[in-house]
Recover the amino acids of this structure.
């Protein structure tokens, strides 16, 4: 057996689970498909995290760097840029095989902490493959004085639009409904910004020139009226497609939308030796709760490893 516990996903939940593993002297591996730190560094590195005790006026990137620095000083192996593609439980050997795009590892227990961001949802419109169509916003300042279209109505799209506006970009946001799904703070921020809001509006086609975005045809889904406007860049914040391929293969129980893994009060899934923590579980979470849940999953995995009858 290569490891006592393998943690899949290096976000706040996964790193916290790994820290707990290290504290209990479990041989622990974290496998992270992108950069360790999770959504904080991969999805909102520029945003100030305002709700995590002990981290005041720090960006996602700074908070993630502190988490990763902490873990790297513990007895934990970390593999970055390595995505898990399959997990299988071997009942005879009583171990779990974890296959990535690069390697195979075995462990007694696995904690799935892959978050919910998955792959970005596509708009499925003509022109979507052009250069200048983006699914993530790293540094709004790169877009100062540019003309930007943001599509979407949740927290992510609204935060992008507000961030771009603050950075000095001429920003328009379109949303297919007439009210944002974003939280109160984000709704207030966008209402107070200079962002132009087009309700009941969707992207009909993305226009380009020499392989690069030039503009978009937008359609009002109530009146069917279209407008054509020039944009330098387009940000599609239409939500995410869950990791259903990966979860389906291991037949782990999820909710009906296949977005969330169902765990019991000890973070166990329906498969022996497999636990889950963080945003991927059925609870709605934020950074502090993901850390708490990850740590708890680490404790539960420890109890399971040391005393399988506990399972
Ligand atoms: C734009 C934005 C702003 C936010 N702002 C805040 C905020 O201000 N305060 C707050 O509390 N929360 C905020 N959140 C929510 C917060 O990011 C999450 O609650 C938190 O990151 C959840 O931690 P997690 O470890 O469960 O998942 P994540 O942080 O999503 O980490 C999961 C990790 O798993 C990796 N992964 C996925 N699939 C695989 C695979 N197959 N193999 C290996 N690795 C894999 C991913 O690459 C990712 O790094 C924000 C989220 C977004 C998107």
């Amino acid at each position: 057996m290569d490891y006592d516990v393998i943690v899949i996903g290096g976000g706040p939940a996964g790193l916290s689970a790994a820290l707990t593993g290290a504290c209990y002297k479990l041989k622990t591996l974290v496998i992270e498909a992108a950069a360790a730190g999770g959504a904080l560094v991969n999805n909102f590195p520029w945003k100030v995290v305002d709700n995590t005790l002990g981290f005041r006026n720090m960006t996602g990137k700074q908070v993630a760097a502190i988490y990763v620095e902490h873990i790297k000083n513990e007895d934990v192996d970390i593999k970055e840029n390595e995505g898990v593609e399959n997990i299988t439980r071997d009942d005879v050997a009583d171990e779990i095989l974890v296959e990535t795009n690069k390697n195979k590892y075995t462990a007694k227990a696995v904690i799935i902490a892959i978050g919910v961001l998955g792959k970005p949802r596509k708009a499925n419109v003509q022109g979507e493959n052009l250069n200048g169509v983006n699914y993530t916003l790293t540094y709004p300042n790169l877009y100062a004085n540019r003309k930007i279209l943001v599509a979407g109505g949740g927290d992510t799209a609204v935060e992008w639009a507000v961030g771009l506006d603050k950075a000095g970009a001429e920003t328009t946001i379109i949303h297919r409904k007439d009210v944002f799904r974003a939280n109160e703070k984000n709704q207030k921020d966008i209402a107070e910004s200079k962002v132009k809001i087009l309700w009941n509006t969707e992207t009909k086609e993305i226009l380009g020139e020499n392989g690069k975005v030039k503009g978009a045809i937008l359609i009002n889904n109530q009146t069917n009226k279209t407008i054509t406007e020039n944009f330098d860049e387009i940000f599609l914040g239409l939500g995410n497609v869950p990791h259903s391929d990966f979860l389906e293969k291991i037949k782990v129980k999820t909710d009906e939308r296949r977005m969330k893994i169902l765990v019991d009060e000890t973070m166990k899934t329906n498969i022996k030796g497999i636990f889950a923590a963080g945003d991927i579980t059925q609870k709605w979470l934020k950074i502090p709760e993901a850390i708490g849940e990850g740590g708890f999953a680490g404790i539960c995995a420890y109890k399971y490893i040391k005393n399988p009858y506990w399972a």
User: Anything to note?
Assistant: The chain has a mean pLDDT of 94. The pocket of flavin-adenine dinucleotide is lined by residues 8-14, 31-34, 38-40, 42-44, 47, 49-52, 83-84, 113-115, 117, 156, 159, 243, 246, 278-279, 285-287, 290 (CB under 6 Å). The chain has two domains: 3-118+242-306, 120-239.
